[in-house]
Amino acid sequence: MKKRLVFKTVLTLLCAAVLCANLSGCLGLFRRAFTPGKATKYGNDLLTRIYLANDAETLRQKHESVLCRRYDSGDEESLSYADASHTIIRDPAVFGDGVFVSGADYSYVLGDDGAFSRLISFDPLPDPWAVLDDGILGQTIERVDDYYTDRRCLEITAYLSASQEIDYWQNAQIDEEAQMRTVISVDYETLELQSIQTVLIFQDDTRRTLESFVVLFDENEVLPEADAIEPIEAHLHAASEYRSTTFVLDAQTDLERRYTYQTPVGDGCLVFLTENGTDYEIDYDSSTPTNDAKDNDAIYYLKRVEALVIDNYGEVEYETD
User: Fold this and answer.
1) Segment 166-177, tens digit of pLDDT
2) HEC per residue, the chain
3) pLDDT tens per residue, range 113-162
4) Could you point out which of 38, 149, 232, 303 has its C-alpha 20 to 30 Å from the C-alpha of 49?
C-alpha cells in the first residue's frame, strides 16, 4: 500500500495537553486509450520494478522537488512537499491547522494562531521522498493497461488477499459484495509513481474511491503552506533566551534514556511519543511540565503504554497483569 505521512501518537506540550492523533474520478479527467494486456506481458516482477524505480534516494537525485497530495472521498486530507532545502507538511490529523516545516537545522510547526512549536521525534521522521513502501510488493496484479495523458502511462490494478483487506480496512464498513482493488499509475518509461487509488468495485461495475495519493515531481505550483518558512526562520534567528525540555524514557531501569532539547522561551514542543515501535505516555506524577508562559525547564518521565487487546466484537480493552 502507499506510504502514509501520518504518525501514531502526538503530544503538544504547550500546557502538556494531549492532541488526538478523491480525487475520485481524477484519472477520468484524462482521455484514456486503454490497451488491455496481461500482467505477464510486463513480467511477473513489475511491482518490484516499480518499487525499485521509486526508491527515495533515486528520486531525490533525479528531481528537484516532490509534491504529494492525499485525498479521501474527494476531499484533500494532507499535503507533503520536499526539495533540497525544506520539507513542508500540512496534515490536520497530526498538526491541526498548523504547518510543519523542516530546514537544515530545525523542525518546527507554525500554528494558525501564530504559535511556534518545536517538533520532537525519538525516531527518524518519514522521508517525504519515499512515495512507496514495500506494501506494494505484497499485492497480486490483476491487469495492466496503457493510457495517455501528456505522455504514455501504465495503470496496474492489483489486490490484497481477503484477510489483508479485512485487517487494513476493518473500520471502513465496506460492503461485503464489493471487491477492493489498488490502482497504481506510473510513467510508462521510468515507472515513476503518479498516483495510487484504493477503490471498491461493486457487482454493477460501479466504483467508489476510498483514498487517493497523487505524486507530482518538479511541480511549479506555489504552495500557500510555504508562507510558514519565513516566519519560522525569522523567529529562530531572533531568539536570545532558551529553555530546556527533557524526556526520560523507562526511568529507573537498565533501559533508561534521556533526551534534552533547547527551545526559545515561549515555544512549545510537539512530541511523537513513540520509539522503535513502542508507544509511551507521560507519568505526570513524576514530571515537571511546561508552565503557561513556556519559560521554565521542563522534564517529562515517559512510561510504556500498556498493550491493547481487541476482542472478537471489535472492542478495545487494556491488557492487565
Assistant:
1) 445 544 445 557
2) CECCCCCCCEEECCCCEECCCCCCCHHHHCCCCCCCECHHHHCCCHHHHHHHHCCHHHHHHHCCEEEEEEEECCEEEEEEEEECCCEEEECHHHHCCCEEEECCCCEEEECCCCCEEEEEECCCCCCCCCCECHHHHHCEEEEEEEEECCCEEEEEEEECCHHHHHHHCCCCCCCCCCEEEEEEEEECCCCCEEEEEEEEECCCCCEEEEEEEEEEECCCCCCHHHHHHHHHHHHHHHCCCEEEEEEEECCCCCCCEEEEEEEECCCEEEEECEECCEEEEECCCCCECCCCCCCCCEEEEEEECCCEEECCCCCEEECCC
3) 999 999 999 999 999 999 998 888 888 999 999 988 888 999 999 987 65
4) 149
Rounded Cα–Cα distance for residues 18 and 15 (Å): 9
Q: What length does the chain have? A: 321
**Residue of 74, 125, 92 lying closest to 20 (CA atoms):** 92
pTM: predicted TM-score of the whole model, two decimal places: 0.79
